[in-house]
Amino acid sequence: MNTVTAESIKSVFTASQQGQIHFGQVIAALSEAGVESYLVDYRAKQTTYHLKNDEHLILNMSDAEPLIAKSFDATVIKGAILGAQQGEILYPEFKQISMEAGCIGYAVWISGRHVCYFGRKGEQHIEHFPQ
């Protein structure tokens, strides 16, 4: 992966983690950088970005993350998603809410325009990007 692309992804990651940009801005910037999808793993505290040419970049999240609940509550996750889509909830709050709702991570399919959220027992909630 070239340095410009890696730095662009790192910049988006940092801005999102700090609550400086909303989900729509994240998707637009990552798409422009050539990211096809990314996987957030709350348990490993990592995000892996996959480019269209199959190169990838792994970035680490903070060690001071909230505990992940044992049960998956898709209703709570849907509420957090709606708030994020409307720009009312930024990533630090979204991460806390989704972890408290039992989400262990999620895959964002930029080219497929949807996100799949995962629970500890294989539960899934698929959310399509707004039109």
Structure description:
The protein is α+β, with helices and mostly antiparallel strands and 131 residues long. It has one domain (3-128): YdfO-like fold (2-Layer Sandwich), CATH 3.30.1810.10. It contains four helices and six strands. It has a six-stranded antiparallel β-sheet. β4 and β5 (114-119) form a beta hairpin. The protein is globular. The mean pLDDT is 94.
Task: Offer a concise description of the structure.
36% of the residues lie in helices and 27% in strands. The chain contains 4 helices and 6 strands, in the order ααβββααβββ.
Q: Shape, please?
A: globular
Assign a percent range to the helix content.
25-40%
Mean pLDDT: 94
What is the count of helical runs?
A: 4
Q: Give the second-level CATH assignment, the architecture.
A: 2-Layer Sandwich
Distance between the amino and carboxyl termini: 31 Å
| Category from helices, strands and their pairing | alpha+beta
- Our Rg estimate from Cα atoms comes to 14 Å
Unreliable residue runs: none
